[in-house]
Structure formats: structure tokens, C-alpha cells
Design a protein that fits this description.
There is one protein chain. This protein is an alpha/beta fold. The chain has a domain of 181 residues: Rossmann fold (3-Layer(aba) Sandwich). The protein contains eight helices and seven strands, in the order ααβββαβαβααααββ. A seven-stranded mixed beta sheet has the order 3-2-1-4-5-7-6, with helices on one face. β4, α4 and β5 form a beta-alpha-beta unit. α6 packs antiparallel against α7.
């Protein structure tokens, strides 16, 4: 048993809200093994001081200078994560509030699972559609996820850009999502419809990656879509659990934990 596995989590009473959140996520991972964190923030979920973790930058999300090391990797558009990691395998991966920005969500999950050992876990923190700027958008569907896996866009599609910019609202003022919400026509907005069209055209014509939420999820919608994807044999994984409305997490987010079931370097490797 290594030193990381021996090290207990500190008592909950001594932890901040952020630390309680991190501990909740890491307890759903085999944290005694070598792991990955995809697109970490300056306060990563998997702290390198406690865990044997490699950080991975993705387009549009650099690793903050304060936590960066020479052992970290950059996952570029058009390249596979396995190549970026030189074929190394890991026991788990964590991704906090980055999955929703990926234009090919199924392809993104496949590539991460392909870098995990069989039985390895992927923990994904996601914004809850009904409690975020995506409140007025529709849930992402099974057909959309599969079609994007076939098309394999490297940057958000015009539809993804349009849907986010034309249907999101400005929640810079604290919003009580438990209270009745106004109709979308009455909601404050960051962008007009004309601006949404202009940005979508610009992104498509220039091949530019805009910082938009390409997909939207609730715990129920993620379970429904990815259960169908797994049943259709499009993903070698099982859903370990989906955790929302738990005191350890913000009410505006939820946690999904997947476990790799396919053989190492399975059929989705690229």
C-alpha cells in the first residue's frame, strides 16, 4: 500500500466547502492509483500535493501556471488523448465543468476511458441545466450526441453556438432557481439574436472555438441519454452513480461517475 493510500482524508469538521466537495468526488475514484484531471482550475479537484495526478490541458483551457508541472500534458484538437499521454494508463480521471464545452461529448468520453485501466473510473462534474444560464435551453438528446460522434467536430458547431448564445440568459445577479422564472422573452440576456447569428457565422467561417456550453444536462437527462448509448454498445462503460442534490456539492451542479468495462485500448481507440 503506497503513501497516498495510507493518507486518510482529514475530518470533515476541519474542511472548507470546497474541500468537502473535492473529498466527495475523490471518494468515488480509486484515488490511491495514478490519476488524471482534465482541464483543472487553479484549485483542482485532485490536488497534486495529496494525489499522484497528471493534469491535462484542453483547447481553450490552459493549466494554470500555479499548478503546472513538466509532467502535465496538452490534449490538442485532432490528436488523441492516448498519444498526448504516451500510451500511459491511469486508474481514474476527473473533469470539473468542462464536459459541457465539448462539441463531441461521446468522443471525448471515449478517449478518456481509453486511457484508463479496465475498471478505471471517470468522475464528471456538470452544471445542472435547470439551475444555470442554460435554464431556458432544451436537454441534449441521444440523437444529437450520436450524430456529433459521427461528425466529430473539433470546434462547436453553428447549432451549438446558436443554441447557447440565443437561449442562455444573464444570471450575473443571484438567481433563485427554486422560485418561478419569467418567460424567456422577459429574461435578461447577454446576447441578442442578431449577435448570436453573427458569432455563429464567425466561428464557422474562421474555424474558431468559442467558449460555449455545447450540451446541457440534468441528472435525469444524462442517465437517460447515456443508458441508451451504453445499451447501444456505443460506449464501453457503466454508470456507477449520478449524484445531485447532495450537501457536499453546489445545488447548481451534479456528479456523474462512469466505470470502464471494455478491454484496455478498446475499439474506440484512435
Amino acid at each position: 500500500m503506497n503513501a497516498i493510500e495510507d493518507q486518510p482524508f482529514p475530518p470533515a469538521a476541519s474542511l472548507s466547502a470546497d474541500d468537502i466537495r473535492r473529498r466527495f468526488v475523490m471518494r468515488h475514484c480509486p484515488h490511491q492509483l495514478r490519476g488524471l484531471e482534465i482541464a483543472p482550475s487553479v484549485s483542482p479537484v485532485a490536488d497534486r500535493g495529496t494525489f499522484d495526478v497528471t493534469y491535462v490541458a484542453v483547447p481553450g483551457r490552459e493549466i494554470p501556471r500555479e499548478i503546472r508541472s513538466d509532467a502535465d500534458a496538452e490534449w490538442h484538437d485532432g490528436g488523441s488523448l492516448a498519444e498526448c499521454l504516451s500510451g500511459r494508463l491511469f486508474g481514474y480521471a476527473v473533469a470539473s465543468h468542462v464536459f459541457e464545452q465539448m462539441p463531441n461529448p461521446l468522443g471525448w468520453i471515449r478517449q478518456i476511458l481509453d486511457c484508463l485501466e479496465e475498471g478505471g473510473r471517470l468522475a464528471i462534474l456538470l452544471p445542472h441545466r435547470e439551475r444555470s444560464i442554460n435554464r431556458y435551453r432544451q436537454d441534449t438528446t441521444f440523437a444529437q450526441v450520436v450524430s456529433w460522434a459521427i461528425e466529430n467536430p473539433s470546434v462547436p458547431t453553428p447549432m451549438q453556438v446558436m443554441d447557447f448564445l440565443s437561449q442562455s440568459f444573464d444570471d450575473s445577479v443571484e438567481t433563485d432557481y427554486a422560485a418561478p422564472m419569467p418567460d424567456f422573452a422577459e429574461a435578461p440576456r447577454h446576447y441578442t439574436d442578431s449577435q448570436a447569428v453573427d458569432f455563429a457565422k464567425f466561428a464557422w467561417n474562421e474555424g474558431r472555438r468559442l467558449d460555449v456550453h455545447c450540451t446541457t444536462w440534468t441528472p435525469a437527462s444524462f442517465a437517460e441519454v447515456f443508458t441508451r448509448i451504453i445499451d447501444a454498445r456505443l460506449l464501453d462503460a457503466r454508470i456507477v452513480g449520478i449524484f445531485g442534490d447532495v450537501p457536499e456539492l453546489s445545488s447548481r451542479e451534479f456528479l456523474v461517475v462512469l466505470e470502464r468495462t471494455g478491454s484496455v485500448r478498446g475499439r474506440h481507440a484512435k
